[in-house]
Amino acid sequence: MKPIDFFSNPEYALIILTSSELRFYVGDNVQLELIDARDVAMDPLPQRQVVAHRPLMELKRFALHLLQVPRLARLPVVVAGEDTLVSAFVKFFQHPYGVIAHTGSDLTALTCPQILHCADLFRAKVRDVYVGHFQERLRVQMRAGRVLSDVVELTRAAERGDISRLLLSKAPQPSGPETELAAAVIRDGGKVQLVPQQLFPDGIKMLGVLRGELHAHSPLFAMDA
Fold first, then answer.
1. What is the spatial distance between Cα 39 and Cα 19, in angstroms, rounded to a whole number?
2. d(CA 124, CA 91)
3. More confident residue, 29 or 172
């Protein structure tokens, strides 16, 4: 039995801005794919502190175009490149899921494998975006009374087939109580998922999300879909 471990390899989008090109990638810890690239003519003068009107409109058009890309709806977006361009771009790119302005390293001239090698510089922030969304949705489920933490209640709910997702802080051990629970949940069509320990209340290492309409329509509990 291998639980879903979404948080160990989350997907993200990467936008790299230079004075000659705007690039859009999608990737994770294993691979990075260039999706779109546009040649532009920006002011290359390093001393300029603002972006001129024409290149500013190029940034705006690119930002508005990307906001219409369905694939980005549930992805954190890392924006990297020349600092002035990044600052201007993020003002137009009002992406509600999460925007990470990445500064302090130059990714503009790197290939996809080289960017992957440097991605540790922003991976923790990407993960934090997902954790924040997941944590908020979990709070909603808890307030609705759809989350169980007591082992006895979890066992009874699993026997009835009422648990749609079992959340664990670590992989179940062969002889541990989590193993039987996980097997029962999977047997009834549910899923078992590993999530960071910080999402659990103190002293709790296992949560069960009950079936119901609120859960069924929650994209945050279906991130692996």
1. 9
2. 23
3. 29
